[in-house]
Amino acid sequence: MPKIEGPGVELHYVERGAGATLLIVHAMGGGCADWEPALDELAAAGARAIAYDRRGYGSSGAPDPYTATTIQEQAEDAATLLRALGCGPAVLVGDGFGALVVLELLVRLPQLANAAVLVEPPLLAFVPTGSEALATERFMLEEALREGGAGHAIQAWVGADAPADRVERARSSPLGFFADYAGQASWSPSRRELRGIDVPVAVVTRPSTPAHVVQAAGALVELLPDARLSNVGDVITAARALL
Question: Which candidate, 151, 186, 187, places its Cα nearest to that of 170?
C-alpha cells in the first residue's frame, strides 16, 4: 500500500498508467476508492492517474486530535504528494470539497497545474442562497447526530440513494468527514484571485447536483478566464480533453 509522508500525516495513494500526470482530490465523505474505476479509464487514455485518501480518510493518517481542517492544509497535502512523486504540472481534478482544494492550488501554487476539472464546486460565498443552504444542511446533520450518532449523520448527508459501498466508506471515516465539515468555510477567495487563474478549467455538475451548487458552478465559470461548463456529470470526458 503506497504512502508518502505528508505534513504531519501519512497519505495513502493509488496510481495507474504513465504519461501526463492527473491528480484526483476526492469529495467530503469520499476516498480514493471512489475513483479507482476512473483511474483505469484515464490511464488507458494516456495519463499517469493518481488518487489519494485525504487526511482522516481511508488508509491515510490524521492528527490527534483532529476536529477541523482548512482548505490551505488540504492543498499543502496535495502539493506534498505531487512533489514527492516527482510530478510536473498536472491536470487537477477536484470533487466537491476537493474542488475547493484544487482552486487553492490554482491560486497559490499555479506552477503545479496546467489544467483543472472542478466537479460540483461548493463555492457558496458567491451564491445568494448559499448561507441558507448551509444552515439547512447543518440543521439536518445536527438532528441526525442526535438521533443516531456520527454514522447515521454521515449516511443522511451522503443520501438514501447512494450506493451501499459509497455509504460504508463514508461512515468509516468520521474524522475526515467532520473535520471537512468544520473547515469547508475556511476559504473564501476574492473575485480578483479567481480571475487570475490562467489555465483551462472544466466545471462539471451532475443532473443530481443541488440548485445552489449549480448556481455556484455558473458563477465560477463567469469569473474564470478560460472555463467551460458541463451539466451532464461526465468527469472522465472533461479530464481526457485536458490531458
Answer: 151
User: CB atoms < 10 A from the CB of 56, how many?
Assistant: 20
Segment 213-243, tens digit of pLDDT: 999 999 999 999 999 999 999 999 999 999 9
Q: Is the distance from CB of 78 to CB of 98 less than 8 angstroms?
A: no
Burial call 32-47: b when 16+ CB within 10 Å, e when fewer: bbbbeebbebbbebeb
* CA angle, 36 then 65 then 174, to 5°: 40
Confidence (pTM): 0.97
Q: Which helix (H) or strand (E) holds 118?
A: strand 113-119
- Residues facing 13 on adjacent strands: 52
CB-CB neighbours of 151 under 10 Å: 17
Residue-wise DSSP of 195-220: HT--S-EEEE--TT--HHHHHHHHHH
Amino acid at 222: E
Verify cis geometry, omega within 30 degrees of 0, for the bond prior to 89.
no
Look up residue 235 and give its amino acid.
Answer: V
Sole residue written with cell 484526483? 24
All structural domains of the chain, each given as residue ranges with its CATH number in brackets, are 3-129+175-240 (3.40.50.1820)
Contact 70, 183 (CB under 8 A): yes
Q: What is the DSSP letter of 46?
A: T
Helices (H), 30-158: 36-44, 71-84, 97-108, 130-158
Q: Report yes or no: 209 and 56 within 8 Å, Cβ to Cβ.
A: no
Cα dist from 160 to 64, 87, 133, 142, whole Å: 31, 38, 19, 17
Q: What pLDDT digit, counting tens, does each position of 51-63 carry?
A: 999 999 999 999 9
